[in-house]
Amino acid sequence: MEGNGEALRADPVLEETFYITSKKNTFYRVKLTEKGLSLQKETNGSTKTETIALSDIIGCRCMRSKKRNAGSCVCHPGASRTQLKVVESSENIQPYDELDMSAYLYIYSYPMKKPRVKGARRRERSTLTLRFRSFDKYEDNLREASRWRLAIKCLIARVPVPKSLLSPTDANLELLLSACPGEDRKLLVLLNPKSGPGRARETFQRRVHPILSEAEKSYEIHITKYPNYARDFVRSKDIYQWSGLLMVGGDGIIFEVVNGLFERPDWEKAMNQLPLGIIPCGSGNGLAKSIAHAAQEPFDLNPMLISTLSVVKCRKTPMDLVRVETRNQILFSFLSVGWGLLSDIDIESEKLRAIGGQRFTIWSLARLIGLRTYKGKVSFLPYDKPIPKENGTTGNGFQKDRQPDIGKISHSKSYGDQLDRYSTICESRSYHDAIDGDQIPDAQERINGLDANVDEVITESLSLETGNHRRRLDSFYSVTSKKSTYYSTGGLSSYQSFSESQSAELGSGESENRIMYGPASTLPALTAALPSTWTQVEGDFIMVHASYQTHLGQDFLFAPRAKLADGVIWLLVIRAGITRAHLLQFLLGLSNGSHLNCPGVEMIPVKAFRIEPAEGMIGYLTVDGEAVDYGPLQAEVFPSLANVMST
Prior knowledge:
Blueprint lengths: L4 H5 L2 E9 L5 E8 L2 E8 L2 E8 L3 E9 L20 E3 L14 E7 L2 E2 L8 E2 L2 E7 L5 H20 L15 H6 L7 E6 L8 H15 L4 E5 L5 H8 L5 E8 L1 H11 L5 H7 L2 E5 L5 H9 L8 H11 L1 E12 L3 E4 L2 E5 H8 L9 H12 L4 E9 L49 H4 L7 H4 L15 E3 L11 E5 L13 E3 L3 H7 L28 E13 L3 E3 L2 E2 L11 E7 L4 H10 L11 E13 L7 E3 L2 E3 L4 E14 L1
Parallel strand pairs: 11-12, 11-13, 12-21, 13-14
Antiparallel strand pairs: 1-2, 1-19, 2-3, 3-4, 5-6, 5-7, 7-10, 8-9, 10-20, 15-16, 15-29, 17-22, 17-27, 18-22, 18-26, 22-25, 23-24, 25-26, 26-29, 27-28
Helix pairs in contact: 4-9, 5-6, 10-11
């Protein structure tokens, strides 16, 4: 089978030949290049190449065998499979097996899985295990594994690989271990335990922490205790001790953090230096979906995974913000401003928060039956530049550097999820079954009826022999896992819970006497007349909604042509007179963007707008789903004012 030619042509940083003890005339040429890992299998003259793209690798760890109850040799046929476990090489608590001198290198990746017959693309976890048992001393094997780890970590971080340390003659193990790049500062995690259905804590521990642990991303987690807790926290704390701000919850906690940053006199430094990460646990999750949509990632099948991978990769991507002014306050918005139907649904459905995102569907039907109209005036400054058409690029207008899916190592069953020392769940068999002589299922069994042409991860125990023909034991093994059940932090991450007195220092969450900084407005005063360059529409409206992201929620493709940083506000206007049938068509079309084809629906690209409800009218005005003063409101876009974490 032909492999990925680009990966093969790249100059190798490290390479090795591996042999399979259980199969004659079969060996692997394994190369680490700037593109990723290339595994070329050769059997009786036939060649098959599989690759793991560097962009799919999130981290790697060196491990060592845990001490067993019996004193039998690791490779002895009678060794019990349940006795052999692997722990991190840096762990001082767990005793090691003095008879096993192996060093294990686990490489964690999340490649894109090919779609099933009519399915969608998805990312799934794959763990590649290199077992180094070349020498008689563990330190020598660890040094060999550490060279690969150092090179992989440097390539992931996009820093030069210190090739002088990769030489086999370099014996300085301590220097190898300390040379791996890493962020000294932790991530700040702000978690809203009541977001969505109220399972954010459990979700973070079960589905987010394992991936952060694999990538060796340490963090400090703080649980919000009252409304505007996160806002007060980022406003008052020394936030530069952290490498980024990770928000776990819905769009509400993002709103708090963004506006808390603009309450700092050093807001510009904060916005430039601290990227914002989002783990979606709320009912809407519009920004998380928009970021994934911009990166062309398959968000819907596993929102937690895709969003966490964005945090792990932490590529800073610019994002527009909108400055919003009402009679009584100034706010900065990342998602939308609304008046009318959608705002009514958003605010009034709060009483159904316990059922999650379904609350929007239920309340949409209620508001459709009891349809309201709003009298007022809408003014806007049209966007005066050509809007680029969709061209297969990402949401920021650049083509993403992706490796082709063909030839990538894909996913099969789990053989190694019990290696984490704190895990209480073991999936399927251990990879040590191969060491003990058990036969591993063949590829057709592993793919469980999927297309036989889909490349599968190599899952055999291999024996490694170098060019000088020195005898080496099995040094290479490859496993994958569909689920991750790691719970350890390696002592790096921490949970913080303030006392009542410390919480009081942050404030009570009230919005009185807040001082907002940020860029100065370029618009006339809210009470002043607008220039003639603005367009004004007066009358009765069903709704007016402005968005600067593609999605208002996970299933709400509101502005299909929006980009994260394009300087455009997409203003949707529906005037009174639209039929309920067309309005129902509009609501149903929000899931795929077809709502823009409904009669009576206008979508206008603008740079700024003003909404002026008629006096005496009652209703809701929302900013990022939060209710604000009902009355005159104006907003303007500031391009690339914030940075978000993206893949």
